[in-house]
Amino acid sequence: MNHRRCGIFVTRLTTLALFLIVLVSSAGVTLAEELTIAAASDLSFAFKELAGEFEKSSGHHVKLSLGSSGNFYSQIQNGAPFDLYFSADIGYPRKLEEAGLTVPGSLYRYAIGRIVVWAGHGSRLDMTKGMEVLRESSIKKIAIANPKHAPYGRAAVSSMEHFNLYQQVKDRLVLGENISQAAQFVESGACEVGIIALSLALAPTMKAKGAYWEVPAETHPALEQGAVILKSSQRREAAQEFLEFIKGQTGQEIMKRYGFTIPA
Asked: Which GO terms describe its molecular function (predicted)?
């Protein structure tokens, strides 16, 4: 009798162990994937919201690295272990594609960005003057992203040249490592005004602190933004899921809410 009871106990224990293994394995399929995404800093607020929604719907975890598109491009060329790369300039992922460093067919033009002239509410600047406000002698520092490796910085310079302003204000420019740092310079008061991404101006923290004037799109090259899955990624299926999520209704709504134009 004791042997029989012992056998039943062992059988039940084995069944329970197998059930737990299956349960853990099933959970692993859902939760084990951690996507590492290199994203242009104009996506800072939009992607934090978007990543949260993706995590809830997919079970995957997203690790965001935010910075300048040019710097990420160099890092990826040198073997940086990212799964996805979201650039503010589609030219960078195209070059990676040409170099054979991306998953074939994964290049996606996900948005077109916009720039604005932004100043804090404490400023006496008349933002209705638009770009012409930069001529004000009271302005000592103007924040923009570094045009050497930040597409938004290049767009700012192009627009200032369009309005015949660049030569007059170039000595007053303060260059941020990326567009988020440029926004921080002006938000903190270190600079009186800045040319930043519309997506950052629409973020709750900045929207409450200042006012902006939207720079006409025709005054600078289009900020076509592109994404790509990197060939070195060990999580290609999850990376493709993230791309599909951005293309879906929830992803599109979030991007539009932060001022991005969605390409047809």
From this structure: metal ion binding; molybdate ion binding; tungstate binding
Per DSSP, the three-state class of 80 is coil
pTM of the model as a whole: 0.85
Is 179 annotated to bind a ligand? Reply is yes
- Delineate the domains of the chain, giving CATH numbers in brackets: 30-112+223-257 (3.40.190.10), 114-219 (3.40.190.10)
Contact 223, 114 (CB under 8 A): yes
Q: How far is CA 7 from CA 1, 3, 18, 209, in A?
A: 10, 6, 17, 71
Instruction: Spell out the per-residue pLDDT of the chain, length 264, in tens.
Output: 455 554 554 455 555 545 544 444 444 444 558 999 999 999 999 999 999 999 999 999 999 999 999 999 999 999 999 999 999 999 999 999 999 999 999 999 999 999 999 999 988 899 999 999 999 999 999 999 999 999 999 999 999 999 999 999 999 999 999 999 999 999 999 999 999 999 999 999 899 999 999 999 999 999 999 999 999 999 999 999 999 999 999 999 999 999 999 987
CB count within 10 Å of CB 189 equals: 11
Selection from 228, 223, 2, 207 nearest residue 114 by Cα: 223
Residue type (1 letter), 80: A
